Amino acid sequence: MEKDLILSVKNAVQALYGAEIGDAQVTLQKTKKEFVGDWTLVCFPLLKISRKNPAVTAEEIGAYLKENDSKISDYNVINGFLNLSINANSWVDLLENISKDENFGFKPVTENSPLVMIEYSSPNTNKPLHLGHIRNNLLGFSLSEIMKANGYKVVKTNIVNDRGIHICKSMLAWQKFGNGATPESIGKKGDHLVGDYYVAFDKAYKAEIKELMAGGMDEEEAKKEAPLMKEAQEMLRKWEAGDAEVRTLWKTMNDWVYAGFDETYKRLGVDFDKIYYESDTYLVGKEKVLSGLEKGLFFKKEDGSVWADMTDQGLDQKLLLRADGTSVYMTQDIGTATLRFSDFPIDKMIYVVGNEQNYHFQVLSILLDRLGMEWGKDLVHFSYGMVELPEGKMKSREGTVVDADDLVDEMVGTATEISKELGKLDGLTGEEISSICEMIGLGGLKYFILKVDPRKNMTFNPKESIDFNGNTGSFIQYTHARICSVLRKAAEQGISLAELNKDIELKEKEVSLIQALAAFPAVVAQAGKEYSPSLIANYTYDLVKEYNQFYHDFSILKEENADLKNMRLVLSANVAKVIKSAMSLLGIQVPTKM
To answer: Within this chain, do residues 208 and 334 fall inside the same structural domain, yes or no?
Structure first.
């Protein structure tokens, strides 16, 4: 509808004033509720072309459109704004076009579509996934689906931080305190088991620091001299030297963690097309850094450490290799980027990483470009805010994080309890109840997180995320189930959706719903341009609110006029279609029964 109107306005300007204008010069917006009309043309940008005052320009364009565009039934001019009213037939035509398009709102992916790689998750193998990882995974997966819907080829990728001092801490603690425990022997997921020893290391390390300080050391010296930390550092050096015993333990414990991660990813409904491991990529990064050193791009300090000097760009000096030759995160990211662009013909690279790493990715972009990788300066850091609980921040080493698995279990349990209390599971089988409550629980979790502007910090409150009457996933899911129930009852009554009668009179609420449906492709495009799943979430909520008001005010199955009943069923079916499509972009399933 909007594209057609833009074309009509361009034709009007050409006919009236003999000038060709581009789409960007046509400013259309939804007419404000206090005025009569559906679309408003802002005429001020056209005054240099018309060389007339706003009121006259608007009047002339309005008269031309009413005469030459069959969609325009009437118009009015207010202070240089041209309000256009669309006839009922055009809205019915629009609904029919939406109904015929099974992939409405989505652009097709072709052989020539640009390829975007999206990195998300990036876990460490010393602990299970927690609430912070959940926001990362949900944003990354949703962004991937949104980019696909915008016609991009998408490669979803993960970089697993499977080496480093933090991994050695868990390994060392397991050696000292584990007594040979395995996931099978104690009946615990492998990522949880390894995470327990990361916490155990920290507790023992703090005890050693306290003891050394009691003996007269200051805190900084005690941290460096603590035996546990020295042992962990020695284990890291052995790992980098390829020590067989250390490497065997490392592989065993990492395999435990990977099995646990896979369970969590599967339940969250996220996946990856390619997984990279820091243990593979850091060596490539070291080669790149050493090559850059030879070319004079970097410099070496007296202790042997390698640095990049970026003071000429208003930044500081950045460590790339430690004095002992071990690499840092920046080294690994240089290596990972090198491998990725070797593996795939990437047109756009997006890193989904929290905003505490803004500086890191600013530096990475500069370093990649300096190393001759032209795509470095065009990388996108999708920087998102932190997620906290009402009680405050979480700390992995202290064991105060909210575990992802526990949170999902809690959400599903809460969904089950609330749904039973409200009678929304009555008459369903045990299998249906289990499936629906899993959908509601995960839908509540995902929607609550994704409806927030990703750039903002947020507080996640599990108790508020499942509410069948608020801006929640469960409210949207229930509306979808309600529409499916109406369509099932229609089918049981022998009513099948037929071609629409173009001459029926539409009510204002019906027109509003069609307009809301028609806005979906533009919202998908905007969400892709701004990297913002929240636009999809909040559009869907507004659509559902609009439908529920319509459902409350108008009869559907009891409507006596057959053409009107058919139109309302078609309208309902397409609202359900768009709800399902929109929620799929958020990684959320919608039930057909509830």
So the answer is: yes
Give the residue among 262, 264, 130 at the shortest CA–CA distance from 199: 130
Determine the pLDDT at residue 391: 65
pLDDT digits (tens, 9 = 90+) for 143-158: 999 999 999 999 999 9
Residues forming beta bridges with residue 81, ordered by sequence position: 42, 78
Whichever domain contains 383, its CATH number is 3.40.50.620
Do residue 202 and residue 306 come from a single domain? Answer: yes
Measured over the CA atoms of residue 464, residue 469, residue 474 and residue 475, the dihedral's sign is: negative
CA 381 to CA 361: how far, in whole Å?
A: 7
Q: What amino acid occupies position 114?
A: P
Mean pLDDT calculated for residue range 109-115 = 96
Q: Is the dihedral of CA 226, 232, 233, 234 positive or negative?
A: positive
Which uninterrupted H or E stretch holds 220?
A: helix 219-225
CATH of the domain at 76: 3.30.1360.70
Do both 439 and 579 map to the same domain?
Answer: yes
Structural domains of the chain, count: 3
Contacts of 231 (CB under 8 A, 6+ apart): 172
Give the contacts of 409 (CB within 8 A, at least 6 positions apart): none
Paired strand residues for 155: 117
Q: Which of 361, 388, 415 is the last residue of a domain?
A: 388
Q: What token pair was written down for 398?
A: 């202290």
